[in-house]
Amino acid sequence: MVKVAILGYGTVGSGVFEVLNTNSASIAKRVGEEVQVKYVLDLREFPGDPVEPVLVHDYEVIVNDPEVDIVVETMGGVNPAYPFSKRALEAGKSVCTSNKELVARHGTELMKIAKEKSINYMFEASCGGGIPIIRPINSSLTADEIDEITGILNGTTNYILSKMSSDGSDFADVLKEAQEKGYAEKNPEADVEGYDPCRKIAILSSLAYEQFVDYQDIYTEGITKITATDIKYAKEMGAAVKLLATSRKTEQGIYAMVSPVMIASTHPLYSVNDVFNAIFVHGNMLGDAMFYGSGAGKLPTASAVAGDVVDIAKNLHHTVMMGWKEEKLELLPISQVTSRFFVRVQGVVADVLPAVEAAFGKVETISLPGVEGEFAFVTETMTEEAYKAAAEKVDGIISMIRARF
Ligand code: HSE
Considering the entire predicted model, what is its pTM? Predict the structure, then answer.
């Protein structure tokens, strides 16, 4: 029998407990022996809950029990999730987690310990919740050279942007409503500022490009400055604004960034709305592939964690190899990254366009019916550095969103 301990009985931890209990018969068949939750660690009491018989409050009970083979870390955050995970691995217990913050920060070290001990550190649920994406990158696309990963990797911001688009509302109003309905966290900073998708694209890129991508090196911009008027312009152009987390191989090097992007209706990610996530992968042999589904939520995330438990149970004394290496990948500086730019500027086209074109070269202009005193334009493809230099020469720029048309 394989014995499991779950750290944290919150949304995901209680989901993993439920999945492992509900599907225990089919899981036992797949593993070849029973998988049993021996302990659940949480500081709280849960009177009347099925977890009661296995609930413990002291981590030492788990780490010192030689019967525990697998530790499921669903605490979130870095402390004490990091020391607990490290100690479990050092004690010869495999670990799986949904904790993207921990994987992005300490994944390299934790995987190294797992390899030294011939055990596993797995994290399928850390990116895209219930969408299988780590395993496909790690084991299915191994004959391909992946040259792009672009994802909608955050459900909260995708919900907010979708709602702003369907209702014509402003960011602050939709965020407030989303918080009232429990779709957005009380402290939504990690989501709306893009830190959460930044960690996820760092993890996916580390696997895809087989070198460690430090999330701290990734240029990250959230959605807090996106307005209802920006979205009106996008609609006028048949486009949508999405928070994209991208990493791409170019001739100059690999870059990674998180930012709102205007995408055309022909882009595969255009129709990904509400809380859904999707990850678009391009491989040199594969061409395009897209992974779509529930990027968050109790049971989808728990299902991915439980999938890791099964994989680990089948590989108890053998490390399933991951492409992610210790060597750090030096990303291309953001100044050298190219894209088109959607820019709003004060004034009327006839007066301002000459100055705009003197700075940016030929641009397409867009005016919105009913919106006076401003218009927008879309540049040709240029580097971020060239955009900055040109923007300094034009007075009255209101805002800029990168565009992929
Ligand atoms: N806050 C995250 C999201 C949860 O909204 O996608 C899943 O990682």
Answer: 0.96
